[in-house]
């Protein structure tokens, strides 16, 4: 199971480009005279705008770029049984799902055409071959009637690639250093990179306020964060100091309780990567058990710090 999961990772590091061109985002020039426009009805435009709203790869794009993308995408209807992408082929299009169910199959060294997952009415696929100049890493098969929005390799590279690649590169090494995330495969970690948003704080600034509703969690990219808790008798205690590669703010998301502590920036150059609660639920499912185990450790430490089990009943 684990070997199968690691396969695409080896692919990325082992295989050489199948295209003559090598990846260099700086080479992709902005040529504004060369815009591709597929006319769409108002209804189509509305549907497409809705479909791309949750595409993590588009997160770092501005309004204008998103408009250009919408113009450049065209609708593709599929029938049950259609193979949209075949593993091993060269990459031509990136797809956003409008409707339909799509199975993901991966041919590994051990097994032919193993079913590894599916998309249902939402999501996107086909970015890997376009980003990394690799053969298609999986086969995508339509299970039902459906509709896709396709974007050509050229448009993808011109508009989406630069920002997304930068983000994946920037966060890849950060996430590699987070032990909790070791259970994610490379593909899952890349999706996580797309979802993270950078945030900066100055010395003493509050990041999380105890008692508030949790909207996301944070990974420390640079600098130090203090975790401070006020217990039921109003006593304030510093619980921990966190540095690069550590995370916080996960507790409220796991327990669906208010924030258990406050978090403050230490020093003027604190950089964090923020993961909102929706992406957290979609992407960190495989890490949930590890996070829960770490919460048990919080409980043990809590007794040491406050000398009693204060607040512990509140924790779950
Ligand atoms: P692509 O251009 O390589 C196939 O064409 C697409 O399938 C790929 O981009 C991804 O968008 C998508 N591993 C690799 N690619 C995947 C995976 C995947 N799932 C979807 N795609 N894994 C599945 C994780 C559930 C890991 C399999 C071991
Ligand atoms: P959160 O979403 O509750 C505050 O927002 C964050 O502070 C919390 O998630 C955790 O990431 C972190 N020890 C270390 N870190 C803690 C602790 C903690 N509680 C919350 N955070 N505790 C052990 C005491 C030494 C307290 C457990 C209740």
Automatic annotation (TrEMBL):
**What Pfam family does this protein match (any one)?**
cNMP_binding
Superkingdom field = Eukaryota
Q: Which residues form the Cyclic nucleotide-binding domain?
A: 57-177, 180-301
Ranges for region Disordered: 1-36
Q: Where is the signal peptide?
A: none
Keyword tags: cAMP, cAMP-binding, Nucleotide-binding, Phosphoprotein, Repeat
Report the InterPro entries cross-referenced here. Answer: cAMP-dep_PK_reg_su-like, cAMP_dep_PK_reg_su, cNMP-bd_CS, cNMP-bd_dom, cNMP-bd_dom_sf, RmlC-like_jellyroll
Which PROSITE patterns does the protein's record reference? CNMP_BINDING_1 (PS00888), CNMP_BINDING_2 (PS00889), CNMP_BINDING_3 (PS50042)
What family classification does the UniProt entry report for this protein?
Belongs to the cAMP-dependent kinase regulatory chain family.
Protein name, entry field: cAMP-dependent protein kinase type II regulatory subunit-like isoform X3
Q: Which organism is it from?
A: Limulus polyphemus
